[in-house]
Amino acid sequence: DAGQFAKVRDIVLSDPDRRVVVVSAAGKRGPQDHKMTDLLYLCHAHLTYGVSCEDILGDIKARFVEIRDALGLSYDVESDFDKFASSLSKETSVDEIASRGEYFTAKLMAEYLGYTFLDAAECIFFGFDGKLDKKKTYAYIDGKLKEFGHLLIPGFYGSLPNGRVKVMTRGGGDITGAIAAAAVGADVYENWTDVSGILMADPRIVKDPLPIKQLTYDELQELSLMGASVLHEDSIRPVKKIGIPMNIRNTNDPSHPGTMIVGKIEDGSGSERFITGLAGKKNYTSLTIQKRGMKDTQTLRASLEILDNYNAPAEHITLGLDSFAVVVPTASLGDKLYDVVEDIKRECDVEDIKIQDRIAMVAAVGRKMTANVGVSGKIFRALGENRVNVRTIKQGADELSIIIGVSNDDFETAIRVLHDEFAG
Hints:
six-stranded antiparallel sheet; globular
């Protein structure tokens, strides 16, 4: 709302070095409200089934007008929005519709800040394969910054070679920010959100989890992949590659330093905790495949190909002498679990496949674990003392994380136990 716009302006204009700004679509104003992007996706669904979305569009336009009027801006959002609304049909792409939340929010913010609006469709270029055209994108954004001095770019979308809008996955504004930071060689990429940095564990599970003052890109990427939801995991790569620090800050508490993410941290005396953060996800299925004398990787490779054919990604693999276990998201298997099992048995001539479902995977992530003896022992002892049964274990090849599988029912307990054990 207008109050949040004012907070953003105060933050941006308090430092003259904040010269490139990326915004997401206007979000919820309160618990009963709807995110702008959700409403736009709903409009597309209505159009697809021939149902009028006039009321929804009216509500969206009213929100933009309300912000414009409250801030005293001159942008003729009504005309711009009506032109967009009148162009909609069954043939309008879902990406085009979903991107308009960012577009109109950015137009308002550009005027409010006095920055030059740069449409993401004109500066974020994707190939038809969906991959970013980094060279073209970086050169264009850097050139526009040199030309205008200050830029305001809507997040979440770009364009294909044919000019059609392409959106990223939800949370893609984080990625746009990272791309822009990399394009101009920024001193720091500040990601302003609604939390004061990254916490050691999910506050919905752990009461008052400890904040993380600093961590490495690799630690953040591991936590993001395992379910930590502060940042989109793909937003890390552009800035990590060229060594731009990332700072997670709170729009509602701008004096808080947040969390700083860097390539390498020179640790001090060793008093810092061994585990940087905890993350995890529920609802996995583990397939333990047994075959005597399995000395090569042929059976593993063939099993993974079968899973891939069913669009069931193997997120975790543990190897034994005559067996290996593959952990996949249960939802990806759907009702094809026993088809997968039968295909593996037939194609790989295995002796047995044991199935465990309702598994949650919990990751303890920390760059200091490798330098300290007995961390894994402390993890298993703490879980055992609290009657949490470990179903599967995996340590990352870079020894940055220890990932354990527990029952879905023990997921929250495992997170709390590990936070209490290592938070000191």
